[in-house]
Amino acid sequence: MEVNPPKQEHLLALKVMRLTKPTLFTNIPVTCEEKDLPGDLFNQLMRDDPSTVNGAEILMLGEMLTLPQNFGNIFLGETFSSYISVHNDSNQVVKDILVKADLQTSSQRLNLSASNAAVAELKPDCCIDDVIHHEVKEIGTHILVCAVSYTTQSGEKMYFRKFFKFQVLKPLDVKTKFYNAETDEVFLEAQIQNITTSPMFMEKVSLEPSIMYNVAELNSVNQAGECVTTFGSRAYLQPMDTRQYLYCLKPKKEFAEKAGIIKGVTVIGKLDIVWKTNLGERGRLQTSQLQRMAPGYGDVRLSLEAIPDTVNLEEPFHITCKITNCRSSVSSSIKMGLLPTHNTHRHIPVICSYWIFVECNEESHALHLNWAVAHTEHFKF
């Protein structure tokens, strides 16, 4: 008859606790009017309660802090901190104690131990303590693996480990939209939604542009010489609330006239988001490189640089056009001219209508043209 051997008890005990910020103690105030049967009894009990605020006993928030009662939620971008303690529960001296902590994610295994050196000996009722930190950069299932190895007085080598499984959740929902302007400017609209169950203090939301662009934030206004944010004095984002941020990217001077390069640029930059939650617990997220759909300008691009708002009859006026060769190396010969515009009720001919030939080559990617135009007006009855 086969008998399973009894499970051997270890001389050391392992305890793992997550380190988080405490929360403010909350109570449920119970009160009544003086003419009711209890009279002032309930009010007196709340005044005697040490957890209430003196003079504001009916408020739910108190002056005491509550330690975490469970593991809680861990969100992407936060720092995971844990306290690891190995205690000698026996009456023997244990030697060569090695404590190792690894974090297993869906893609990698990380060593979080501060030191990989073994402790020479551990006396009875003594312990080895360690605190580990890790900035969470992946969502999904995480497993904290704590392994302990030691040697008994008799020379027997012992080994055991424990597994602690937890989920990393997504704190923010980020959506982006791009708008390509005719002046090579790119406008980025970022919508950030708080999908947690607690408020967030948005400390910073900035855009780190690529090497070809300069960025300007459009999330503040100038009031009486002071820069005031458009979100008001309170930068809190309540659960399931959404906030929109707007940025303008302009090509740098050395790339502004190289339309062939600018039109093919799809990488714009990445968002850097920093927030704080309960009692200042900090979190940070950086998006991957944001990409836009490159505008299709073709080989040649014509843009209107300047035109007057109003003109006088029978008087010349000036318009300025800009022709850009969007090719990278091949020169282009372009035929340009002004044509009269006809209308069913009015006829506005261009007096100095003419055709010109210009050439855009690799050395000159942009060409400015000025026309002096006069017009007359004829009414049809």
TrEMBL record:
Q: Tell me where in this chain the Trafficking protein particle complex subunit 13 middle domain is found.
A: 172-295
Which segments constitute the Trafficking protein particle complex subunit 13 N-terminal domain? 10-168
Q: Which InterPro entries match?
A: TRAPPC13 (IPR010378), TRAPPC13_M (IPR055429), TRAPPC13_N (IPR055427)
Signal sequence: where? Answer: none
Subunit structure, as described in the record:
Part of the multisubunit TRAPP (transport protein particle) complex.
Q: What is this protein called?
A: Trafficking protein particle complex subunit 13
**Gene of this entry:** TRAPPC13
